[in-house]
Structure formats: C-alpha cells, structure tokens
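Throughout our pipeline, every protein is held as a single compact record rather than as scattered files. The record that follows is passed on verbatim for readers who wish to inspect the format.
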Amino acid sequence: MVRQPSVAAQNREPLSRDRIIEAALHIVDGQGLGRLTMRRLGDALEVEAMAIYHHLPRGKEELLDGLVAHVAVHPAPTRAAGDWQAVLRRWAGDYRARLLTHAGVLPLVVTRRNPAALGGTAASLREVLRQAGLTEQAAADGAHALLGYVIGHAALEVRGSAAAEEAVDWDTRFTAGVDLVINGLSRR
C-alpha cells in the first residue's frame, strides 16, 4: 500500500533554507537556544531531520550562522534629506527592539564569528556617517561604537540588572547611551 501525503503536507511550503531558519528562530524564541536540535527542528518542519542537511550541508553550525545573520543584519536607512542623528537614533531603537525580540539568538550574535552578519549593518552605518561629513576613519569608528553599544546594551538588558542595582529603566538608559555616542560623533 502506497502512503499518500496528507492534505497539510501537500499544501506545505517546500523546504528551503529560509523556511528552516524561520522555524529554528521560532523554536529559539519560544523555547530557548538550548532546546534547538536538528530533530526538534525536523519535527517542527514535519520532515526528517536529515532533510535539513540538504539545505544546510554544514548542519547545526550553518544553522547557527544563519540565525545570527537573520537577526543581526539590520541596515541603517540611507539618509535622505534629514537629520543624520535622528536617522541613527531611530536605527538604534529599531535594532535594539529586533535583538530583544530574538533574545535567544543574542548570545550567538555576541559570541559567534560571523563577519558577514554584522558587516552589512556596519557598512550602512558608515555610509550614513560619511554622508554626515565624517572622514572614512571617523565613520568606521563611529559605526563600530554605535553597533557595539546597541548589541552590548541589549545583552546587558537581557541578562538583567546587576545585583547591586535597584530597578533599571532600560529605555531611559539606552536612550542616554545612544545620545552620548551620537553626540560624540557630531563633534568629530
């Protein structure tokens, strides 16, 4: 007897790298990074875990790199006629929100060597700063400082306040830090 695929299986989107990354992100967001296994991912996708390797030949390493790239790539908008500082403040707030939404991936963003994942974001920030009149070196330094600040702040925020501190208003602290970085760049 030949087994026919279910109606749900027939209507399911074909397996792809993007679909695999999205399903993995859903697992990490809902259950944490520690619960992400190829078997659990296969179950979520309703495929055998081995089918995933067709799209991710390096297996879990490639999957983790894909998660970092998916979450960490967040280019700054190109600066139209407008205030470059406002553009960067808006970008920083949006990027922080993205990192906090996918907080389970944040440890990977911080620890995995994946230059391609952050390179595009840094290049976008450098371009906004170059358009604002900063030299190439100052734009590179500024992009690095702003990117590092936002990622670092999100990591601290996820970890929670230190034992010696009382309640922390993370929004106020984040905004104050972004203002310090951007105001410092405006003096260059």
